[in-house]
Amino acid sequence: MNIASLVVRAKPEHFTQLEALYRGIPGVEVHGRCEESGHLIVTVEDGEGYATTDSILAVSTAGHALSVSLAYEYTDEGLGLQEA
Asked: Coiled coil located at which positions (predicted)?
């Protein structure tokens, strides 16, 4: 499992367009918006047939996204390989 939380900076007048674009990206969900600061809170989860990194790239390159910051990332890949 891979999960990432992103903070997307955009002009508030473009929030609706961005949210519509993000609904079409696998594993992406918009959880919040702040029109005063121009931020959207987005999570990305991996799934069968797509990778988290591809979805993060799609969020970052979507039209009207001014900047994207990675706020949190979790992966459980390789946890079974660690020794106690």
From this structure: none
Give me the pLDDT at residue 44, please. 97
DSSP states along 19-79: HHHHHTSTTEEEEEEETTTTEEEEEEE-BTTB-HHHHHHHHHHSTT--EEEEEEEEE-TTG
Task: With a cut of 90, say whether residue 82 has pLDDT above it.
Answer: no
Number of neighbours of residue 17 by Cβ within 10 angstroms: 13
Q: Is the pLDDT of residue 37 over 60?
A: yes
CATH hierarchy code of domain 2-75: 3.30.70.920
Bridge partners for 73 per DSSP: 4
